[in-house]
Design goal:
The protein is of the alpha+beta class. It has 2 domains: about 60 residues, no CATH class; about 35 residues, no CATH class. Helix content is about 20%, strand content about 25%. It is built from 2 helices and 4 strands, in the order βαβββα. Strands 1-2 form a two-stranded antiparallel ribbon. The chain has a two-stranded antiparallel ribbon with strand order 3-4.
Length: about 100
Amino acid sequence: MFVLVNNQDGSIFGAKTYSVKSQFATERSAKAAATRYSKEYTDNEFGRITFDKTDYTVTEYSDYTEPQVTVTKTIPGTGETKTYSIGINSVGTCTDPGTETYWSM
């Protein structure tokens, strides 16, 4: 499996959305997807995601190490402010303790 890794922050493109494929069977298919994404996700005034092919590197998933980030958020339901470390691809998803979805599952 191959993924498109952001050169600036180490996140995987499309990891947080269901509408964008983020894992590919071959390196060639990942490169082809990068070309398609660069044509489809261009700069726009609507705040939609953008993709610049030069900002991403095709990486084998087994070689990928997810960077950890430290987040400080108010925990829903309790109102407590907590600081915790989480993988960059998990921030804002259902596996993030700072989201209501995490606590309602």
